[in-house]
Structures are given as C-alpha cells and as structure tokens.
Amino acid sequence: LAAAARQLEQPLATVSRKRSSLEGLLKTRLIARSTRRLELTDAGRDYLGAARQILEQVDEAERAASGAYARARGELVISAPVVFGRLHLLPVVVEFLREYPEVDVRLLQADRVVNLLEEHVDLALRIGELADSSLVALKVGEIRRVVCASPDYLGAHGRPALPADLAQHVCISFEGLMSASRWTFPGTSVDIHSRLVVTTAESALVAAQMGLGVTRVLSYHAADALQAGRLERLLPDHEPTPVPASLIYPSQGRLPMKCRAFLDFAAPRLRERLRSAQL
User: Fold this and answer.
1) Is 65 within 8 Å of 94 (Cβ atoms)?
2) Residue 12 in contact with residue 1, Cβ under 8 Å?
3) Cα(272)–Cα(265) distance, rounded to whole angstroms?
4) Half-sphere exposure of 114 (CA within 13 A, CB side)
C-alpha cells in the first residue's frame, strides 16, 4: 500500500480509504492482512484480472485513435539481460532509432525475468524456453553454456578431459547461472570447489583470463575472449543442449506499429550477430 501511494503520489491514508470504499461498494474483501503481509483474496485476484483487461482495452483504443497502428511512433520499452543487451541488443537499438525518428526506446537491462504486463514492457529478449503461453516468442538464435579457462592456467594445471576432472581444478562460479558447489552436465553432475564466486559474468571472465581457474558462462559472454585466444573452450562434447534466444511479446490484441517495426528490423540483425558470434 505504501508503494502504491508513492506511485500514485497520494497519502497512504487516501489510498487506504479508497481501498475500503471499493470493498464497501463491492461488498467483499479484496485484500487480506496477515501478521507478515497483505495478500489478495480470491475475489481480489479476479477483480484485478478483470480490471487489467479493461485497462488494456482502453489502452488499445487510445493507441488506435492516436495512430499507433498506422505508423511507428511513441516510446518503446524493451528489456534484456545486462550483457546481451550491451553486446548485441544495444547496437541494433541504435540503428533502429536512426531509421525511426518518431520512436523513443527505453532499454531495461536486468538479469531477471521481467513481467511484461506488470512492468509495462512492450518487448523482451528472453534466453531459455518460454513457459508463459500468453506470450509469443520470435527465435533469433541459440545460446550455450561453455566451460573455459586461460591458456596459462591450462598450461600449469592441465586440461580436463571429462566433467568429473573439474573436481581437481580451481573453479570460478557465476552465481547468477549456476551453483557454486556443483556443475551439471548431460547425464552427470560434478562437485567442484569454487575458489571465487562472483555475481556478474564479466567478473568471472576477467578472473579466468587472469589465470585463476576454470569458469562456466553463456556462450555470448565468452565469445570475444575465446575468439581472441585469451580463453580456451573446454569439454565441448559435454555441453548441455543450447537454449533459444527469443524476442517475446504479449499475444493479446494487435501489435502497435512501433513493436512490429522493431521486430521486423531487429530479428534478422540479431540472428546475424548471434551467427557471427558462434564459437
């Protein structure tokens, strides 16, 4: 309630009164209070879903009236993982903005799953299988998990031939991607010792290039270092099945022209960038 009050720029007491008035009008409780938190009741969840549908219909009517379906214009909100956004999506966005002067882009870079409807995001770049059936996915490539280490480290400690050999190596874990104590491969998992655990792929790659140990990241994270010879790819025959990288968007209603224009513009360019970055 306090967060809602801040977003509405109204006093908390006003928001509480409005909630109470709405519950009085509907003659039912929408929110239940426990000792720890507030939770929607079943009636509250149903009412919220219906209200969102109404607001989406109003928003679509406003876009149609303003010409959003006639030409590409307005603000386009896109989300993407941090590193993928910087390496691949941002260059495409800059090209797109040059081609479409009436569109502005807000690029949200975050290593988490963004809820498109709740966070008012038009499109997202998602890595992995799509579980939400209310979304449409346009595949632009595939991403793998790769194990790598520097030539200096491998010269001093040897090259693992099997995943089980990693138990004898110094490991660097990127905790946003994997466990710091066990790495999983097709048909097996290996207990490893992470001398260093980091929260970003860039830090894992820097430490690996400095010769500290073996790391595991996504293929696009390591592509530049591998192509330049600063890192070497290990255990390629034991990598998990690649996962798709897709542009996703809600399936409801017509797509505004700004979204359709970006999909048509970005998809072939992202496919080409990911093809050229394959190891």
Assistant:
1) no
2) yes
3) 12
4) 26
Q: Which residues of 46-66 are buried (b: 16+ CB within 10 A; e: fewer)?
A: ebeeeeeeeeeeeebeebeee
Q: Which distant-in-sequence residues (6+ apart) come within 8 Å of 193 by Cβ?
A: 167, 170, 171, 181
Q: Which residue has the tokens 């260059």?
A: 91
Taking the C-alpha atoms of residue 131 and residue 176, their distance in angstroms, rounded to an integer, is 20
Cα–Cα distance for residue pair 181/194, rounded to 1 Å: 7
User: Strand runs (DSSP E) across the chain, as ranges?
Assistant: 31-33, 38-40, 74-80, 103-109, 123-127, 135-143, 145-149, 170-174, 182-185, 188-191, 193-198, 214-218, 232-234, 243-250
**Number of alpha helices (DSSP H) and beta strands (DSSP E) in the chain:** 9, 14
Closest CA to 247 of 69, 103, 120, 79: 79
- For strand 243-250 and strand 135-143, is the pairing parallel, antiparallel, or unpaired? antiparallel
Contacts of 84 by beta carbon, 8 Å cutoff, 6+ apart: 125, 127, 220, 245
Tokens 């590409």 correspond to: 72
The rounded distance, in Å, linking the Cα atoms of 42 and 30 is 8
For each of the chain's 279 residues, which pLDDT tens digit applies? 888 888 888 898 998 899 899 989 989 989 888 777 888 898 888 888 888 778 777 776 776 666 555 578 899 999 999 889 999 999 999 999 999 999 999 999 988 888 888 888 999 999 988 776 778 999 999 999 999 999 999 999 999 999 999 999 999 999 877 889 999 999 999 999 999 999 888 999 999 999 999 999 999 999 999 999 999 999 999 999 999 999 999 876 678 889 999 999 999 999 999 887 765
